[in-house]
Amino acid sequence: MRRHGQPISTIGVTTADRPQLLERCLLSVTRQVTTHGSRARIIVVDASKSARNESLGRSAASSVQLATGRPISFIGRAEKLALRQALRSLCDDSLLEFAFRPCASGNRNIILLLTSGEHVLFVDDDVVCAVWSPRSLRRVIALGGHAEERDIAFYAQRGDVCERLEPANVDLLQAHDAVLGRTIRSLVTAKTLAVDKRRACGHLRAAARGERPARVRMTFCGIAGDAGVSYPDRLLLSGGTWRTALASSRRAFKTALTFREVCKVARRYTVMHEVSCMTACMGLSNTTIAPPFLPVGRNEDGLFGATLSAIDLETVSCHVPYAVLHASNRPPRYSGKRFPSTSETRTADLLISLINRSSSRIRTHESRRRLVRLGDELKQLAALRTSDFVKITTLATLRTREREVTMIESALENHDAYPSYWRDDLRSFRTLLVKNAHKPTFLLPLEFHGARTTSAGYDELRQFVDFAGELYVRWPALWTKAKTRLPGFAAD
Question: Which end of the chain has the lower number of beta carbons within 10 A, N or C?
Fold first, then answer.
């Protein structure tokens, strides 16, 4: 597909304490832009805890720049301090420290600010941007909805993940550019690709007819390698092609829940109304405001996708029919308990529940105002008495888990779609979930279990929610300020 409209102008690479992986990633990125003549700038944001690793990462970026002739901007401790100084007139330094906390979310927030007004490609440092395509690639754009449509296969070894793929001499940026930032109506009427609406939800059907606005804000490459998930047991509740693959054989089912190696890639451009966000290799239309990432640890990207959908009601996403390698340095086998999500709650999942609850009450459609309103609601929650704060967060978690139990009950009745081995695990999952659901250690998000007491953990959670709300309130001003190009951070 040829480019339409505004192309991706920046590739933002996030890294932390992995200089060797960063060098490998940058070599693959520069190979892409050089081979296909792209003028996109490359930014590396480093959150290394070790000063030595930051120095090695900076050296890796310099050596790749020297070897390839491609300019690479490196943002480390000194550059982050300068950025904070440039933004201090807009908010307290403690809030900037929260926004730029040295982790994946802080790295991505810096990229968001430095690319405000642009289209950007986010790339994690353990991704290799060698492009692979499915053998059954089709020149079609499909309008989907909520059910997973990508092809899925599970593996025990990293070396096998590309068995269904073939190397593709494809411009990775152009593959994203073809749909990123475009309305569904323009994609349907362009006639560049055949359009398949058979599985489209009502929202996307109306958007295709021009009856309601919908725009592709995020694009995702397929992944061959590390699945990038911390809860493999969530697959038990999956649908669409995930369910088809899991139900294909007991071996496939066991492999999926035991090993993290996967190949998930669309055979055609596939537009989704329900956003499932994974930032390993993600295009973002950052021309209108996107929310900040929050430093919640696990599932930061899922929370970002849910928040973007909550503030921009036109948001849809699109799976690009090409894969990159997610060549992490983690072992192929999952470690820990068999059903980890039945005994703990993640902060990201709690916030997604709270944001979905709040967004339905917001009447304005303007994205900035919706983000500020969400922030105000979080701040109001944090200001409640401890007993009321605990009650509301507990109810949000229990309602989410109640819906999961309802899904399990429905699945157990459907013998045709769920084989006996799957139903056996669903029963075990349900038993553990019901057993743990009212334990204080389950209801308090796991990221706050390090506090001295449960009460102290809720105090820390309340402070976190207050900071998150304040960041949402202040973010439009920060994003707008950055759009004017901060001194010392202008595009090359």
Answer: C
Give the Cα separation of 242 and 28 in Å (integer): 29
The DSSP element (H or E) to which 226 belongs, if any, is strand 215-226
* Angle, helices 347-359/454-483, rounded to nearest 10 degrees: 60
Q: Which residues contact 148 (CB under 8 A, 6 or more apart)?
A: 238, 239, 240, 241, 242, 276
Identify whether residues 97 and 83 lie together within a single domain: yes
Residue with tokens 């990207």: 301
Under DSSP, is residue 287 helix (H, G, I), strand (E, B) or coil?
coil
Other Cβ atoms closer than 10 A to 470 = 21
* Residue 360: per-residue pLDDT: 87
State the maximum Cα–Cα separation within the chain, in Å, rounded to a whole number: 63
Name the pairing type of β-strands 281-286 and 194-196: unpaired
pLDDT averages per 10-residue partition of the chain, 492 residues: 75 98 98 95 97 98 96 96 92 95 96 96 97 92 92 96 96 96 95 90 95 97 95 94 95 97 97 89 97 96 96 97 97 91 96 94 94 97 96 96 95 91 97 93 96 96 98 96 71 49
d(CA 201, CA 274) in angstroms, rounded, equals 10
Q: Could you tell me the two tokens for 404?
A: 């999961």
Look up residue 353 and give its two tokens.
């529940």
Q: Which domain holds residue 72?
A: 7-124
pLDDT score of 337: 85
Spatial CA neighbour of 36 closest among 79, 77, 3:
3
Is pTM beyond 0.90? Reply is yes
**How far apart are alpha carbons 52 and 47 in whole angstroms?**
12
Token couple for 20 = 């060797």
CA distance 184 to 206: 10
From the list 182, 80, 454, 324, the residue with the least C-alpha distance to 445 is 454
Domain shared by 112 and 134, yes or no = no
Give the separation between CA 390 and CA 455, rounded to whole angstroms: 9
Domain-located, residue 229: yes
Q: In this structure, is residue 345 part of a structural domain?
A: no
Q: What per-residue confidence (pLDDT) applies to 417?
A: 87
Distance, in Å, from the CA atom of 381 to the CA atom of 23, rounded to the nearest integer, reads 44
CA dist 384 and 380 (Å) reads: 7
Q: Which residues contact 404 (CB under 8 A, 6 or more apart)?
A: 237, 433
379 and 238 in a common domain? no
